[in-house]
Design brief:
Blueprint (H helix, E strand, L loop, with lengths): L1 E3 L1 H10 L3 E6 L10 H8 L10 H12 L3 E8 L5 H17 L2 E6 L11 E5 L3 E7 L5 E6 L5 H14 L1 E2 H11 L1
Parallel strand pairs: 2-3, 3-4
Antiparallel strand pairs: 1-7, 2-5, 4-8, 5-6, 6-7
Helix pairs in contact: 3-4
């Protein structure tokens, strides 16, 4: 395992050839780049018209090149403020840009699903995203190649149990 900088992880989004898959297991993130937007959301402000534009450009560029970007977000009800922020401000724009965003609802499942965030690039490179209890990112760690199959298994399990965000949003709205 080796630590990665933010820049090194960012380069992976330029270099991957086929797929980039993110597993989001935390219920709350506390990322410096998002703090102002989360505060705005919680205060009832309108979403800025250019919100998340850089990420949307990255997703579109990769989609146009035939590369797949996918995200699996684990949620538990009742939703945290951060999950509500994602649902109301973030995910629909990511989907519109071309990201396949899926929801894995763990509310009825208990606690047997690993709470580890990671990216998988081209099914050959895994980067763990380790978070502190307050939701801040502690570090990014490239996984030893021998351990990649375990993360592919976790991804496959999550994919089997997840639904596309648009389908989940219809269910979620129906549940009130």
């Amino acid at each position: 395992m080796s630590l990665l900088t933010r820049e090194e992880l960012g380069e992976m989004f330029q270099r991957f050839e086929r797929s980039a898959v993110r597993m989001e297991a935390q219920q709350t993130y506390n990322m410096p780049a998002e703090r102002a937007e989360v505060r705005m959301f919680l205060a009832g402000a309108d979403k800025p018209s250019d919100f998340n534009a850089d990420w949307h450009r990255t997703v579109r560029r990769n989609a146009e090149a035939g590369k797949r970007m996918q995200r699996l977000k684990a949620v538990r009800r009742p939703f945290t403020d951060y999950t509500r922020f994602l649902f109301e401000w973030v995910i629909a724009g990511n989907v519109a840009a071309g990201e396949d965003y899926r929801i894995l609802d763990l509310t009825e499942r208990g606690s047997d699903f690993p709470e580890q965030d990671f990216w998988i690039f081209d099914e050959s490179t895994v980067v763990l995203l380790n978070f502190n209890l307050d939701g801040t990112l502690r570090d990014r760690v490239r996984v030893d190649p021998a351990d990649v199959p375990e993360y592919l298994r976790r991804r496959d399990e999550a994919l089997k149990e997840s639904v596309h965000f648009n389908e989940y949003r219809v269910r979620w709205a129906a549940d009130g």
